[in-house]
């Protein structure tokens, strides 16, 4: 049973036409309030009622001619807005002004809180009655990409209340020297943000963009001067490979504030950095920048962003180029990056060396003997056949469509003149101009396992990385339930350095890694 709230020091009462009374939640009306919630809202838990009791002034009960008729529950979102999270009226009291009285009560509460500038309300589903109620209470509908969800907003005050710098990164950060503030985005900023983007970025953003910004406003911020929005940064959380990113979608400053543009950009970027650092999961901050925008690029470099470079020949790029072919910049959030522990000493302390006996392109190791044959046009069908036998048919043609583009990254293993396994790798560029080697697929036929072929395939690619000037490490994603492959990497000196949820359908991937440039 949820605990009852303490008696409010001042009970807010509103009368309409002499028949409707609205009271804040208190110990005197808690029983009626909880009963009405269960009848009107359905699926009400004790925890739900307990949350309402924790701040009774934000919940209220409406009476019609002395009988309980409806309830409303609000939430202070701590970003200068008050959200109506639940409102309902018993069937027999509908169309009598009870809903409007509850809405007006919420508005009056928002005015009393002083720090609140907007009252928000979300309607899920095509509930025409509730939509009409919101509009009749003076709420304005905001455009939304999802037709089944409508956002409503009612302005309380024109003032913007600044928070202390250290109080919250989602609050307002004052910039006294330039007389502008950085604060979190609010729903009331959306229309101005659209105008800013159209005039400065000259791009037509899809409804999905603004829907995301409205749904996750804490990932965006605006610059305010004299109650005018003069700049904005919009971000989204996403995943790229093993990394969790805060990707900056837009960074815009109004043209008439060109003299302050660099300072505003820097302040908005700092807000995004603080947001990422305060999270427990974001590992990198990323954004695209036009290659001709040298001032912004210089700001990024001064804030320790790095440009993600491709190889000299322009191939093996591991981030998606956008349609404008802009430069891609990244910044590590050091505290959230997964640690790279010191690599274990490899158990198989031997080198795989070319010998004179076997045909060109083959290699030999001692006890047992394994030949490693570099892929060539005539052996591609053998590679696909091995893959089908080991992992099952269905994806060989797609997986190995471009295998001959870099033939030195794919090898077949032979024992007793029989092809018993293979390894297929890819080379990726990194932000500092070097590369890493990813073991994409490797496998050995069941009847030839535990005879050293898998270890020899992995060992050779590690040596390949050690002998290459531009490759710093080797890594691979391994299914969480594939213990033999995990043991093969561990015995090869790899360490588990990360995890990618649901990488293989419903199965997580464990990231195995070895630093091939660290001195032993």
Describe the structure.
By secondary structure, the chain is an alpha+beta fold. It folds into 3 domains: 143 residues, Aminopeptidase; 164 residues, Aminopeptidase (3-Layer(aba) Sandwich); 145 residues, Gcn5-related N-acetyltransferase (GNAT) (Aminopeptidase, 3-Layer(aba) Sandwich). 25% of the residues lie in helices and 31% in strands. It has 12 helices and 23 strands. It has an 8-stranded mixed β-sheet, sandwiched between helices. An 8-stranded mixed β-sheet has the order 9-10-11-12-13-14-16-15. A hairpin with a 4-residue loop joins strand 9 and strand 10. It is elongated, with a radius of gyration of 31 Å. The relative contact order is 0.06.
Short note summarizing the structure:
The chain has 520 residues and is of the alpha+beta class.
Key terms:
Aminopeptidase; alpha+beta; 31% strand; eight-stranded mixed sheet; 12 helices; 520 residues
